[in-house]
Design a protein that fits this description.
Blueprint lengths: L3 E5 L3 H13 L3 E5 L2 H10 L4 E5 L7 H9 L6 E5 L4 H9 L4 E4 L4 H16 L8 E4 L2 E4 L4 E4 L2 E3 L3 H12 L7 H9 L8 H14 L6 E4 L3 E4 L4
Parallel strand pairs: 1-2, 1-3, 3-4, 4-5
Antiparallel strand pairs: 6-7, 7-8, 8-9, 10-11
Helix pairs in contact: 1-5, 2-3, 4-8, 6-7, 6-8
Length: about 230
């Protein structure tokens, strides 16, 4: 099935350049040159993934990301020329799944988008489809997480983080190891990214979030409490 992307970028040449690469990989591309139009297209069109620039007219990327997250868990990749760590943290706090800093290779962007979609669609690793811990149930095939029978809406990165913690059940995982393993060795953010996502994941899991414990001066551990 052909995937669709909403590319939100006000630089015409950059937008055309990125569009060409996605179309070569058989993506259907919808384009917007400002935040207001991006929201309109999001409401009117069936989109699988959003690539979102930050500095735009009408409505900036932060506002667009926040507005979309109030309605949907669609994967969002932020692209920006800003490299400050605080901007990276803000993006993740608003619900972004990936963060790509300009200048970048369009081929790398397409590869990241494809990998993110595979995780979202649950096509990576089908072994052990049902993982059950207390009232927490993870269905890897359906890519769903539920607690006490209630579905929990996680972003792709939160889902990846939860699976990584579960995979290392009972082990203390250093924050830098989590960052490298879940976000990748080329990710430019800092360890606060891990802390922010752990906090959000615990909140979404409710009572089951207690299974994610903080080990002072060491990292985090996933283990069901007795």
């Amino acid at each position: 099935m052909k995937r669709s992307i909403l590319l939100v970028e006000d630089d015409v040449l950059m937008r055309e350049f990125i569009t060409d690469y996605f179309k070569k990989e058989q993506w259907e591309v919808y384009e917007a040159d400002n935040g207001k139009l991006a929201l309109e297209l999001f409401e009117q069109t069936s989109i699988d993934l959003i690539v979102l620039d930050i500095m735009m007219p009408e409505m900036d990327g932060w506002s667009v990301c926040k507005a979309i997250r109030e309605k949907s868990d669609i994967p969002i990749i932020i692209i920006t020329a800003r490299t400050e760590d605080d901007d990276h943290i803000l993006g993740f706090e608003l619900g972004a799944d990936e963060y790509v800093t300009k200048p970048f290779s369009p081929r790398v962007l397409v590869a990241r988008a494809t990998a993110l979609m595979k995780r979202t669609e649950g096509t990576v690793g089908q072994e052990g489809d049902l993982l059950s811990y207390g009232d927490l149930l993870v269905n890897r095939r359906a890519h769903t997480v539920s607690a006490a029978g209630k579905i929990i809406n996680l972003s792709p990165k939160e889902y990846d983080l939860l699976l990584f913690l579960i995979k290392h059940y009972g082990k203390v995982l250093p924050r830098d190891y989590i960052l490298d393993s879940v976000w990748g060795y080329d990710y430019l953010g800092d360890l606060r990214t891990v802390d922010t996502h752990i906090k959000k994941l615990r909140a979404k899991l409710g009572d089951e979030g207690r299974a994610i414990s903080t080990v002072i001066r060491s990292g985090y551990k996933f283990e069901m409490l007795s």
